[in-house]
Design a protein that fits this description.
The strands form 2 sheets. The protein has an 8-stranded antiparallel β-barrel with strand order 1-2-3-4-5-8-9-11. A two-stranded antiparallel sheet has the order 7-10. A hairpin with a 4-residue loop joins strand 2 and strand 3. By secondary structure, it is an alpha+beta fold.
Length: 241
């Protein structure tokens, strides 16, 4: 009888230990299933830095004094929605406000060469970037389209002083030499998201739509496009991994 009592006591203690372990394992399994469940949505905000220039076969016609350089100090603000379609695959949808442009090398007969900052602000949308995710690491690529909100370029007046010319944005009276109102192209990026929702992303963007409008040019549009990258720090408000 003593041995039977000891045996039953040991069994009871084993069950007491095993049950919490089993419960914890089940909870982990449920949580992991939720994180990879197809159709899961996540939403977040991001902000950061953009650095763009202009490039293409016709860039020397616009930057008459030489190859343009990157416009530094650009900003990037965005909201992002992600949709999972499997454990590793999904789609990323983003709306962003950012600065693009470049520093032109302007060559004019009357004045010494000077650097001209060509600044454009766009509202970009990336409707469905395909995303591959492995734990917190993300790789994504897809198309984007943008709407021009403002445009300016630096020029020199008769006194040789540099001023900001906003007429390059264009209006109904102009027939050419202004910035296109629409941009479009491709982007690709790499990011990492921590379990607490903080994420960092680096993205490269290549425009495919001509940047300058020339309705009176018989030779067609200048082949000049936006090109640059951005780095952002973000936070997932809901749907953390």
């Amino acid at each position: 009888m003593v041995w039977l009592g000891v045996f039953l006591a040991n069994v009871g203690m084993a069950q007491t230990v095993v049950r919490p372990v089993q419960a914890a394992a089940v909870e982990d399994l449920i949580e992991n299933k939720k994180s990879i469940e197809p159709g899961k949505l996540s939403f977040g905000l991001k902000a950061g830095y953009s650095r763009f220039t202009i490039a293409g076969a016709g860039v020397n016609e616009f930057s008459t004094g030489g190859k343009p350089t990157s416009l530094s100090g650009g900003y990037y603000l965005g909201i992002e929605l992600s949709t999972k379609i499997s454990q590793h695959w999904g789609f990323k949808h983003e709306l962003s406000l950012l600065q693009k442009g470049g520093v032109l090398k302007m060559e004019e007969e009357a004045y010494p060469d000077f650097d001209s900052k060509y600044r454009n602000v766009y509202l970009d949308i990336a409707p469905f970037n395909l995303t591959f995710q492995l734990e917190g690491l993300q790789f994504f690529l897809g198309p984007y389209a943008g709407v021009l909100l403002s445009s300016s370029i630096q020029r020199k007046n008769e006194s040789g002083e540099i001023y900001t010319d906003k007429s390059i944005f264009g209006d109904a009276k102009q027939t050419g030499d202004y910035t296109q109102k629409l941009d479009a192209g491709l982007l690709t990026g790499l990011g990492y998201e921590f379990k607490n929702g903080i994420n960092i992303q680096a993205k490269y963007t290549q425009g495919l739509a001509p940047l300058i409008e020339h309705t009176e040019r018989n030779e067609g549009q200048w082949k000049i496009y936006n090109r640059g990258f951005s780095v952002t720090l973000g936070y997932t408000l809901f749907g953390k991994r």
